[in-house]
Design the sequence.
């Protein structure tokens, strides 16, 4: 595999992503600025004077034709200007940056728990293919993926927070709390996300393992007289876990959506609760910026996964042709 | 057919169907099963723990939690199946057309799916519901809108596989009309994957409706909806009033897991 071909594949991916992003921005803009109708009216309320409404619309620039408004909005966005929040009357960007940092921390805690756990479970299920351990992990994992985060969150809070008192219920800590203690407060909020992702990741890890275990190179290694442990560690794992990376990246979208619910349940001020607060308060600039941030985060993680796989396994490029 | 039914008789499928049936009965005959009025408050008796009078206790304005759990089955089991059915009809039609006719429509659909999948379902639904206003009808429409291209994609790939079989060119040579080929020739042959996909979607529809209700953008008060009840009462967990939300959480979990078990059973039996 030549480097040029790899570059071409990544460039193609980036071009498609840019197109997706463009469409996404149109959808978000349409939903945020055209569907609600009169922005100033919705801010000032039904009793406001018509002249005041017109003046505010002019001030906000929401009296221009939609195409012009969209162009202006995109132009500002590209220069890093996300506009002014209707609710706070101050620039949106700092809110987004701050909330994104908190959400990434929660997402990181989630990944640190879920990735080893589900890959381990997938490996066990594959090694015990068809036995009760396999069925338990497969069916249990699949059942957990469909339980809404706020439902598992409530049950986890009741068991680990209220009944056993092992973990703190609140995601927030007082200022000046140590980093380790802060992380401990994030375990309970991370667990509902872990439960959702566990089923997806372990299923793919299991499928990859089973395929690798049944392959010719595994048989060759076994026939060479290598011990089972050696075969698994040296030959099976590396080949089996590549597809898992793609799935982990693909689940980022779920993870980000789950953040809205989990952050609300645990009152954690991340990008998810920022979007929800903006949605409740009809703060459209904040809402649009938050949603675009989520979309960009998803696309970036998809590209990253592609790059990682291209680096680790040149075959995947050849196979895609 | 007989073989399919025999293959369906797995413990998981039977267990799942039984629980789903239980909640469907609650949804249909709720008013006859509720021991008390699920909407009647009793301000003299708020947050009462489970007892003989109130099996699951009472919530913060004294409403009977047990009755509200039964009543709550109705809202979620009307919105989620309605949304799924709507998207099944639209998605199947769209998938048949894009798969059979192809061309630019096909390209547009694939791009559209990419955009929809680039955003979490909850977030897409939030954006639309903020603009249109939250109501059961709007929630149904939003979920149907998002699921339609996803179902269409499954149908499309099934159609593409069918078009390679001899009976489709044969029908074309007989000069059958395209609509007849799509709906009378191809559709009956691709029903199994559609049934599986729609059941899986039903599970996600329940997931989404419940989550939206929890966030305040789904089913609206004074409904006894489970997600809404949890949203109204979860602030009380710290005080030790776990029964106000715990039973609603268990009810939601049992419903989604059961629908998923049914979908799994169908998939194993049909494919």
Sequence:
């Amino acid at each position: 595999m030549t480097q040029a071909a790899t570059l071409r594949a990544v460039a193609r991916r980036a071009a498609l992503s840019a197109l997706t992003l463009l469409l996404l921005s149109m959808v978000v803009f349409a939903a945020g600025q055209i569907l609600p109708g009169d922005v100033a009216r919705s801010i000032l309320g039904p009793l406001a004077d018509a002249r005041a409404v017109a003046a505010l619309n002019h001030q906000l620039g929401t009296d221009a034709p939609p195409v012009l408004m969209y162009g202006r909005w995109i132009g500002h966005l590209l220069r890093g200007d996300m506009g002014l929040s209707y609710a706070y009357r101050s620039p949106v960007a700092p809110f987004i940056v701050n909330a994104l940092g908190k959400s990434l921390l929660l997402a990181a805690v989630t990944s640190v728990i879920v990735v080893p756990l589900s890959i381990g479970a997938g490996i066990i299920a594959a090694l015990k293919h068809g036995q009760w351990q396999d069925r338990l992990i497969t069916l249990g994992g699949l059942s957990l993926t469909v339980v809404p985060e706020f439902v598992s969150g409530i049950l986890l809070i009741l068991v680990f927070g209220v009944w056993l008192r092992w973990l703190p219920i609140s995601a927030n800590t007082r200022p000046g709390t140590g980093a380790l203690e802060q992380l401990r407060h994030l375990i309970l909020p991370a667990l509902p996300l872990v439960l959702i992702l566990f089923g997806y990741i372990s299923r793919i890890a299991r499928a990859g393992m089973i395929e690798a275990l049944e392959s010719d190179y595994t048989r060759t290694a076994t026939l060479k007289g290598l011990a089972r442990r050696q075969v698994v560690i040296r030959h099976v794992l590396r080949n089996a876990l590549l597809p898992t990376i793609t799935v982990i990246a693909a689940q980022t979208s779920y993870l980000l959506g789950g953040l809205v619910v989990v952050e609300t349940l645990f009152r954690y001020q991340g990008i998810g609760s920022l979007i929800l607060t903006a949605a409740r308060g009809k703060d459209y600039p904040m809402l649009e910026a938050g949603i675009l941030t989520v979309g960009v985060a998803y696309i970036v993680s998809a590209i990253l996964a592609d790059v990682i796989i291209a680096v680790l396994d040149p075959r995947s490029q050849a196979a895609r042709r | 057919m007989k073989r399919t039914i025999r293959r369906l008789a797995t413990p998981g499928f039977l267990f799942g169907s039984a629980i789903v049936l239980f909640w469907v009965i609650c949804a249909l005959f709720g008013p006859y099963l509720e021991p008390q009025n699920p909407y009647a408050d009793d301000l003299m008796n708020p947050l009462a723990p489970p007892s003989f009078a109130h099996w699951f206790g009472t919530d913060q304005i004294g409403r009977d939690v047990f009755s509200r759990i039964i009543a709550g089955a109705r809202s979620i089991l009307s919105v989620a199946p309605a949304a799924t059915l709507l998207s099944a009809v639209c998605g199947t039609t769209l998938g048949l057309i894009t798969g059979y006719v192809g061309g630019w429509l096909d390209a547009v659909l694939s791009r559209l799916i990419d955009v929809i999948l680039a955003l979490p379902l909850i977030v897409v639904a939030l954006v639309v519901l903020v603009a249109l206003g939250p109501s059961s009808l709007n929630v149904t429409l939003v979920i149907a809108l998002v699921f339609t291209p996803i179902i269409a994609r499954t149908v499309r790939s099934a159609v593409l596989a069918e078009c390679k079989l001899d009976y489709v060119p044969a029908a074309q040579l007989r000069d059958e009309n395209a609509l007849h080929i799509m709906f009378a020739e191809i559709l009956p042959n691709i029903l199994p994957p559609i049934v599986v996909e729609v059941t899986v979607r039903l599970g996600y529809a329940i997931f989404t409706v419940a989550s939206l209700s929890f966030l305040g953008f789904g089913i609206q008060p004074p409904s006894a909806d489970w997600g809404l009840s949890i949203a109204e009462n979860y602030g009380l967990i710290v005080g030790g009033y776990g029964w106000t939300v715990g039973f609603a959480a268990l009810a939601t979990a049992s419903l989604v897991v059961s629908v998923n078990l049914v979908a799994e059973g169908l998939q194993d039996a049909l494919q």
Summary: Chain B has a mean pLDDT of 85.
